[in-house]
Amino acid sequence: MRKSLILGAIAAAGVAAGAASAATMDDVMARGKLNCGTNTGLVGFAAPDANGNWDGFDVGLCRAVAAAVIGDPMAVEFVSTTGKTRFTALASGEIDLLVRNTTWTFSRDVDLKFTFLGVNYYDGQGFMVPRGLGVASARDLDGATVCIQTGTTTELNLADFFRVNNINYEPVPIETNAEARQQYLAGACDVYTTDASGLAATRASFDAPDDHVILPEIISKEPLGPLVRHGDDVWADIVRWTLNALITAEELGVTSANVSEMASAAGNNPEINRLLGTEGNLGEMLGLDSDWAVKAISAVGNYGELFERHIGENTPIGLARGLNAQWTEGGLLYSPPFR
Amino acid sequence: MTTFTDPPKEPTFRLSMLIYDTRYRSLTIQCVALMGFMLLAAWLINNTIVNLATLGKPVDFGFFRDPASYDINQRLLEYTSRDTHLRASFLGLLNTLLVAVLGCVTATVVGVVVGVLRLSRNWLVARIMAVYVEMFRNVPVLLWIVLALAILIESLPKPSDFRGEDPAATMALFDSVAITNRGVYIPEPLFSRSLGEVYLLGESSLRFAVSLDLFLILAVLSASILTVRWNLSRAKRVQELTGERPVTWHVTTGLLFGPTVAVLVALGFHLGYPELKGFNFTGGTHLRNSLIALWLSLSLYTAAFIAEIVRGGILAISKGQTEAASALGLRSNRIMSLVILPQALRVIIPPLISQFLNLTKNSSLAIAVGYMDLTGTLGGITLNQTGRELECVLLLMLVYLGISLCISAVMNWYNRTVKLVER
User: Does B57 lie at the interface with A, CB-CB under 8 angstroms?
Assistant: First the structure.
């Protein structure tokens, strides 16, 4: 009798361990909180504000997902991850969703067993140098000391760029953006390299941003986007279509200001109606309420609002829309239709 | 009248005796515990393998043959980003061993000096040593490492400060050493008539080159040392036979320096000085900040523990020994070196082993300062780029286990040679 009890307990533990990976949505619902992995602190993308609340462009997507699933944009537990720890945190189930300036690559998608759900920022790797160095091009950096965040794709691009151009450099591997900032400002490295958006964000946090220039070369494609674990398509669909909802909302002119009015009754445009749940049952298909997109948009605004508020040209970071404009405006943002 | 007694019964074995018979009970409990432990281990391993297979990531070490694609700044052997992950890990291992050896030697020297000085009768010296020991022992080593790097980066001049007509910083030691916030550049030994290098292990990931110059110098030096020792033992024999010790110091000096200097001249030995070119100093040997910060903080931290061990070892020798030695007319430094330390070593060495192991394992904090040790390469970038967490971490543990067991084996052997021989 006792023996069978122990065996039963072991078997139950085994089943529990096996089942932990599936049904992320149920876990999130039961927990009442979304565990979202973000940066350790990159102004504009993900950083705690003066009151200790996480805020930023990436943080906005986490809040939108929380609003769509749980109904409360504040029901997010932010887990700050470094370039090194982020994948382990996601693979182990510590976080449900990773939105951390993470580049969509083949091996991360296929070999690391993650699912990338789209692109929320089209980026590329750049270089920042002090203006006093008088460097105009990245090809003039022969023999320079370069600060680089370890565990990132930028580390690999950097090695390739210098090897292909047949120039030497000295890499200084560092863990976080804050350490890079310290070493760069103290002159322990001549150059800091990371995604151009990250450079702009870091430069904006300097005392004298104008003393530093971002070189014209962009040496790689860095499509940054949210990702989840392989094998939970229901959860993947929810995050993917939340992002698409924000992008489509901008395209259709739905903003946080007018969304509640537009959602109060079905309007003329059937796509807006389907997006906002006044027509059809898209929300139900996702396993969510019919006004899931309304909650997400009213919580953080559409993609354009999110961009302008955190990293746009009127913020200290001052990024232009560039590639991240809607496809109708000559950019690459192109959400599949809500149909 | 006859009496009947039952023939002594054959002791029959019943299952219940496994529990109620004290002869068997302990064995039974041990067997059951062992089986339970093995079942638990088997379940854990099986669970891991099954879960990884479900995730689509079966255990596979094939990634070691793929190109690493990242650069390593601090390296003892040649390496490019096209080399394999195995070579990157190998270089990381060498970096771990480098900082471990440097750290153990420095920590021992500093620890012994501080341990002896803390027993000094000079109140000020003893107090200063006590403050040093308590400060380093009671603050986590990670903080010391980070602090050391921050001090190096923030307080030392940038390479560009050495530039211009009236530079803000100048090189030290007759313009031969440049101390910058990117590290220290010291002159490097060069040979104008070099014998070249021998490349071993062909094209494999573990290939390395041996400098024939260094090999020759070491060979000549060890031959000199052997001859010196032979000469000293001859002098001792003569002393025992005749009572007069022949003068040996001029032979010793000549033998130690003569042949080595001759070889150095023959090879065309000269120093290559660092000079400021472009963004950085070039030429010379570059000791990076990360290495210096890690080395210094690990050494000073561990030295504080070693100092206490040394102090304990010396205090363990009874005061009567010192008094007896001075009654024989020995001076106090000879008492220390001939009477106290040889006995104290027996007490000191076993705990010293674990301090060496601690230092080696603490060197895995290197990533805090960006020093590319084994944890930084195999357990850091390689793990991150390939996503093979289990394989990398298991291998990492295995390598650290191997290093630690080797250190223990060597130190245990040394302990046997100095320990009290009992008859």
Answer: yes
**Calpha distance A226→B317 (Å, rounded):** 66
pLDDT of B3? 64
Closest of A295, A288, A222 to residue A259, by C-alpha: A295
Q: Is A183 close to B153, i.e. CB distance below 8 A?
A: yes
Chain A CB contacts of B160 below 8 Å: 187
**In this complex, do A172 and B50 lie within 8 Å of one another by their Cβ atoms?**
no
pLDDT in tens, B78-136: 898 899 999 999 999 999 999 999 999 999 999 999 998 998 889 999 999 999 999 99
CA distance A311 to A313: 7
Residue A14, pLDDT > 70, answer no
* C-alpha–C-alpha distance, residues B258 and B280, integer Å: 38
**pLDDT band for position B16 (50/70/90)?**
confident
A150 with B160: Cβ contact below 8 A: no
Angle of CA points B108, B113, B116, to nearest 5°:
120
Token pair 């080395």 is found at B295
Which residues of A fall within a CB distance of 8 Å from B70? 155-156, 159
d(CA B72, nearest CA chain A) in Å: 7
Q: What is the mean pLDDT of residues A158-184?
A: 90
ipTM greater than cut 0.90 = no
| Closest Cα in chain A to B387 | A112
Helix-helix angle B289-315:B85-118, to 10 degrees: 40
Q: Could you tell me if B384 lies within 8 Å of chain A, comparing CB atoms?
A: yes
Please give the single-letter amino acid code of residue B276: L
Reported in sequence order, the residue ranges of chain A that DSSP labels E, i.e. its strands, are: 34-38, 47-48, 54-55, 76-80, 97-98, 114-116, 121-123, 125-130, 144-149, 169-174, 191-195, 212-214, 222-224, 227-229
Q: Is B317 part of the contact surface with chain A (CB cutoff 8 Å)?
A: no
Q: Which residues of A touch B280 (CB under 8 A)?
A: 143-145, 170
- Token representation of residue B56: 């689509």
